[in-house]
Amino acid sequence: MTDKYFEDFYKSVVVLANPKTVLNAKFAKKEIKKKVIRADQLVKYIKDIYVNSKVTPYSEEGLLEWANSFLILHKEVEKDYTGKYDKYRINNSKSEIDNEVLPEKVATSTSTNTIINVEDTDI
């Protein structure tokens, strides 16, 4: 039943939010061009669809019942991302890193200044 009446209840539209967007729709089909609108035309588009609709308007109670049917279908899914990335966790504590790794790198690294004369190079 959903597939049969989908186009009557749901209208798919592409809304362009950026007013500077240039859409190259020269070779697009007419039904595709009608589904692409700009954000400032969205309210007018919805009103036109509502006026031209053959479906009888819902009462407020009917709309509330319809919205609640979607809420009933909602399933809360909890994801544990910390468990997913535990294998990448470093086993050293912060004090070990401060005491062992950093002094070694600082002690072994030396800085040298390199000056290149542009006149002497073959650039």
Query: Which residue ranges are poorly predicted, with pLDDT under 50 across at least 5 consecutive positions?
Result: 116-123
Strand order of the largest sheet: 1-2
Question: Count of helical segments?
Answer: 6
The share of residues in extended strands comes to under 5%
SSE arrangement, N to C: HEHEHHHH
Number of strands: 2
The radius of gyration over CA amounts to 31 Å
How far is the N terminus from the C terminus? 73 Å
Shape: flat
Helix-residue proportion: 40-55%
Written description of the protein model:
By secondary structure, this protein is mainly α. It has a domain at 2-73. 46% of the residues lie in helices and 5% in strands. The chain is built from 6 helices and 2 strands. The chain has a two-stranded parallel sheet. Strand 1 (14-16), helix 2 (30-34) and strand 2 (36-38) form a beta-alpha-beta unit.
Concise synopsis of the structure shown:
The chain has helices at residues 2-9, 30-34, 42-52, 60-73, 81-84, 94-108, and strands at 14-16, 36-38. With 123 residues, it is mainly alpha-helical.
Question: Which key features would you list for this structure?
Answer:
mainly alpha, disordered C terminus, 123 residues, 6 helices, two-stranded parallel ribbon
